[in-house]
Amino acid sequence: MGTSKRSVAKDFDFFVKKTKIAADVVLRKLALDGYGLVLLKSPVDTGRFRGSWRLSVEVVDLSILPKTGNPQLSAGAPPSSEELSRSNAVASATFGQTIFISNNLPYAVRLENGYSTQAPGTGAILKRSLDELVADFRVVVAAVRKEL
Q1: Packing angle between helix 23-41 and helix 125-147, nearest 10 degrees?
Q2: Does residue 43 carry a pLDDT above 70?
Q3: Which of the chain's termini has less CB crowding within 10 Å, N or C?
Q4: Where are the alpha helices (DSSP H) in the chain?
Q5: Which residues contact 41 (CB under 8 A, 6 or more apart)?
């Protein structure tokens, strides 16, 4: 079952109106949850790929982790303090702004397309994370609808 932007937008609008939670807060929460999912799903060899995920508002952050990587990062580990500090970018995001989760390493597209010698079959990091985020959000929206 595909997810259309329109149906997600309708769920978002319904949730904000019924819970009276500010759209800005819901937007920030979804962005941070999405960022966390991407980090957790990232394969780790040297830590450079996972450490190069960026979270930004309105403009794509083109920076990457230097070649030395971050060997302290491991697959499935919670976000590090450095990764959490990047999430500060969305602290003042407002509804209507675009939030980007990006990775600008030259091999990021290959990993997204499923190529990893360290973790075969772990592709579609962004797609799987977005699908999971939308599914989780829909569960919350369904619960709110039931309470009405």
Answers
A1: 140
A2: yes
A3: N
A4: 5-19, 23-41, 48-51, 81-86, 108-112, 125-147
A5: 122, 125, 128, 129
- The rounded distance, in Å, linking the Cα atoms of 138 and 135 is 5
pTM as predicted: 0.83
Give the residue from 25, 13, 20 showing the smallest Cα distance to 90: 25
The length of the chain is 148
The position carrying tokens 């230097």 is 66
Phi and psi torsions of 89, nearest 5°: -60, -30
Q: What is the separation of C-alpha 97 from the centre of its chain, rounded to a whole number of angstroms?
A: 15
Q: Which helix (H) or strand (E) holds 56?
A: strand 53-57
pLDDT tens digit string along 77-112? 777 788 888 888 899 999 999 999 999 999 898 888
d(CA 41, CA 130): 11
Residue 27 structure tokens: 């937007």
Mean pLDDT across the chain: 84
- Please tell me the distance from the alpha carbon of residue 55 to that of residue 82, in angstroms, as a whole number: 12
